[in-house]
Amino acid sequence: MNARRKDYRITLDHRQVRDVVSSVFHSLMVHRTVAKFNYRTENNYVLGSLGLTEIDCNCIDLSYVRLNSPGLTTRIEEEIEAFSKDLYDPYACSPRRTPVGSPLDSAEPFMTTSIGIEFYQKKRRWSLSVESSPWEQWYLILDIFKVTSEDDFQKMRESVARSVSEVILNVCSVINRTQYVPQMPSKSELNNVFETTFSDCQPYLFNVNRGSSLPGLPTKSSFSTVRRLLKDFAM
């Protein structure tokens, strides 16, 4: 089975990495998490409830909604924190490149890297072993710069917020299209489809992949376009 994959590319300052990844990943999890199942029989269950909370970003002018689940939030944030630390580790094994061009005069190229969420289910093979079968992947390709001017950083607070908003809107549009999603499992198969370790919710089984293979880098002309748009916005 081929997993559906969506890639989104965002140009940002290195201080905005946590906000960008958190806002997109938590928005995804809102759509890929269900309430806890309370099974009455092998195939009949009653759903619990889910809570939502609004979060204000620190380095971009954006608020987003995430599930009010301390356990799930911690799991996602720990992955993002590890990814953020890897950016400054010269020995980290995550694939990275130097981005081409610069979106603003004071923006120094730092790196291009990626992080993604992969949803999967467990399937038994003929040999009775269990394998993980991905069915959906969402990746962020990040062109990261270090902006030295405070004025330019303020511009990027707004421009990156617009970019992330477009990504989240696209996720909401795409994620509910008719595509493969695992069927609701029986009680005995629940752990093959959902992560059941959280006390207040059940996300589909997922992995956070840091630094997957990167697509081809954009040309300098594409960054010139970004720079021109930012300058027009500032006028």
Short description:
The chain has 235 residues and is an alpha+beta fold.
Distance between the termini: 50 Å
In which order are the strands of the major sheet placed?
1-8-7-10
Basic shape: elongated
Question: From the alpha-carbon coordinates, what is the Rg to the nearest angstrom?
Answer: 20 Å
Average the pLDDT over all residues and give the rounded result: 87
Strand content: 25-35%
The assigned structural class equals: alpha+beta
Unreliable spans: 216-235
β-strand number: 10
Helix proportion range? 25-40%
Order of helices and strands: EHEEEEEHEEHEEH
**Sheet with the most strands, sense and barrel status:** 4 strands, mixed
The figure for the number of domains is: 1
* Count of separate DSSP helical elements: 4
Structure, described:
The chain is of the alpha+beta class and 235 residues long. It has one domain. The chain contains four helices and ten strands, in the order E-H-E-E-E-E-E-H-E-E-H-E-E-H. It has helices at 17-31, 70-86, 150-174, 220-234; strands at residues 4-13, 33-34, 37-39, 45-47, 52-56, 63-67, 107-124, 130-147, 202-203, 206-210. Strands 1-8-7-10 form a four-stranded mixed sheet. It has a two-stranded antiparallel sheet with strand order 2-9. A hairpin with a 6-residue loop joins strand 5 and strand 6 (63-67).
Notable features of this structure?
235 residues, alpha+beta, two-stranded antiparallel sheet
Secondary structure topology:
Layout: E1 4-13, H1 17-31, E2 33-34, E3 37-39, E4 45-47, E5 52-56, E6 63-67, H2 70-86, E7 107-124, E8 130-147, H3 150-174, E9 202-203, E10 206-210, H4 220-234
Parallel strand pairs: 1-8
Antiparallel strand pairs: 2-9, 3-4, 5-6, 7-8, 7-10
Helix pairs in contact: 1-2, 1-3
